[in-house]
Write a structure and sequence with these properties.
The protein is of the alpha/beta class. The protein has two domains: about 200 residues, NAD(P)-binding Rossmann-like Domain (Rossmann fold), CATH 3.40.50; about 220 residues, NAD(P)-binding Rossmann-like Domain (Rossmann fold, 3-Layer(aba) Sandwich), CATH 3.40.50. Helix content is about 45%, strand content about 15%. Helix 10 crosses helix 12. The structure holds uridine-5'-diphosphate-xylopyranose.
């Protein structure tokens, strides 16, 4: 017997939730997007995606036109409307600790549960410390008028910013952490079009589903820090980490993805996820098992400091009054997200050391300006580079990779470039008269 198509709500309309809500409506479901922020809801209702995500504005317009997607700030309306409720709110790092802040998850789940009067499934997608789902199950069933008729499941998301639409419509895999056959059937119905494409489904218990996400992100962070650790060794020996990474990548067992050396990882996920995971593992008495994650974090932070050192080396040790152009502010290309962005960390450290820093980014300038008004901002790379003593490539946007070194050489004060992302061709830049430096390269 097939389960009828469930009506879906998506609670929390940030990067994850807005993308999920829009894509589910595109796949043919009736979807209600919910957020406590009335401004965000109004923008979404009027067809505006409140953040930069390629392809998403077009799909939002299409979903709104179809009549299958609506938005509200009312959790009561959500409870009445939905059969399956996806929890997509943020779990940032706590202010004074490495632990995840679960206030948003708790409050989203509780305000929904208060109004659940019939059989329903609440599905967590947010990244949480293992054990959260068990605690939330108890909370939901205690608070909901429908009691144990409400069940909880976990379905971690793996979407990458910049590729969020693709990752939602055609994910590598679906993970369903469930406590019952009924919950699994509901999830299968809620993802029927995705499963029909042949997407693998891993059905498991709640703690395993919670762990999959942090385990995946820890692995990715470790792989990046591994190659960046090799870059540190290269720096001490005159070896070239780029050649090393290329040679390693030909080994199928290693592979080349997430093996790009440079300034390291940032963003709203990898850094806080590995810290929250370490913290949780310690609480569980298995801190030693993931003690290496502290080292992974340490290697990653050192890349930022080392990039500042490269600038210092180029300017003969003095940073006061040095004019620096920072190409990039976002934590990675194709995103306007500046959370824990390595680029801005470097720009701010240089500024604090007395340099005059001008930042340029195709999408993240407004976010960066709001967070760090003390930095200067330009609207294009050439204007930003006018009179510069050193240019730094910090986020590898295509338009920065394609900069003509001759043209930029005409506007700068000194032809000195630090390639923080190993994204430029050193031969080409050197031929144009530039002093080229990159971490882990002679
Ligand atoms: C990540 C995970 O990939 C995703 O599955 C999860 O759901 C959320 O976290 P995202 O934060 O969008 O996604 O970024 P991702 O594309 O994974 O990049 C993370 C960081 O690593 C970026 O700062 C990027 O510049 C850096 N990186 C990536 C490297 O430094 N080297 C690499 O080889 C790859």
């Amino acid at each position: 017997m097939t389960t009828p198509s469930p009506r879906l709500t998506v609670i929390g309309t940030g990067y994850l939730g807005a993308t999920h809500a829009i894509c589910m409506a595109i796949l043919g479901f009736d979807v209600l997007g919910v957020d406590v922020d009335p401004v965000k809801i109004e923008r979404l209702r009027s067809g505006e995606v409140p953040f930069f995500e390629p392809g998403l504005p077009e799909l939002l317009a299409k979903a709104l036109d179809s009549g299958r997607l609506r938005f509200t700030t009312s959790s009561e309306e959500a409870a009445e409307f939905g059969d399956v409720h996806f929890i997509c709110v943020g779990t940032p790092q706590q202010k004074d600790s490495h632990a995840a802040d679960l206030t948003y998850v708790d409050s989203a789940v509780e305000s929904l549960a208060r109004h659940l009067r019939g059989r329903a499934l609440v599905v967590g997608k947010s990244t949480v410390p293992v054990g959260t789902a068990a605690r939330l199950t108890e909370l939901v069933q205690r608070v909901a008028p429908a009691g144990t008729d409400v069940e909880l499941a976990w379905n971690p998301e793996f979407l990458r910013e910049g590729y969020a639409v693709e990752d939602t419509l055609r994910p590598d895999r679906l993970v369903f952490g469930t406590d019952s056959e009924w919950a699994e059937q509901q999830l299968r119905a809620a993802f029927a079009p995705v499963i029909a494409q042949g997407t693998p489904v891993v059905v498991t218990d709640l703690p395993t589903a919670e762990l999959v996400k942090v385990a995946a992100n820890s692995f990715l962070a470790t792989k990046i820090s591994y190659i960046n650790a090799m870059a540190e060794v290269c720096e001490a020996t005159g070896a070239d980490v780029t050649g090393l990474a290329t040679a390693l990548a030909y080994d199928d067992r290693i592979g080349g993805r997430f093996l790009k050396p440079g300034l390291g990882f940032g963003g709203g996920c990898l850094p806080k996820d590995i810290r929250a995971f370490s913290h949780r593992a310690e609480e569980l008495g298995v801190g030693q098992a993931v003690a290496f994650l502290r080292e992974v974090d340490g290697i990653n932070q050192r890349r930022r400091a080392r990039t500042v050192d490269l600038v210092r080396e180029l300017t003969g040790g003095e940073l006061t009054g040095v004019r620096v152009t920072a190409l990039g502010a976002a934590f990675k290309p194709n995103s306007d997200d500046i959370r824990d962005a390595p680029a801005l960390d470097v720009a701010r450290t240089l500024h604090r050391s007395g340099a005059q820093v001008t930042v340029v980014d195709p999408a993240a300038t407004e976010n960066a300006r709001r967070a760090f008004p003390e930095l200067d901002y330009a609207t294009d790379a050439m204007t930003a580079a006018a009179g510069a003593d050193v240019v730094l490539l910090l986020t590898e946007w295509t338009q920065f990779r394609e900069i003509d070194p001759h043209a930029m050489g005409e506007v700068v004060g000194r032809r000195r470039i630090v390639d923080g992302r190993h994204a430029l061709d050193p031969a080409q830049w050197r031929a144009a008269g530039w002093e080229y430096r990159a971490l882990g390269r002679p």
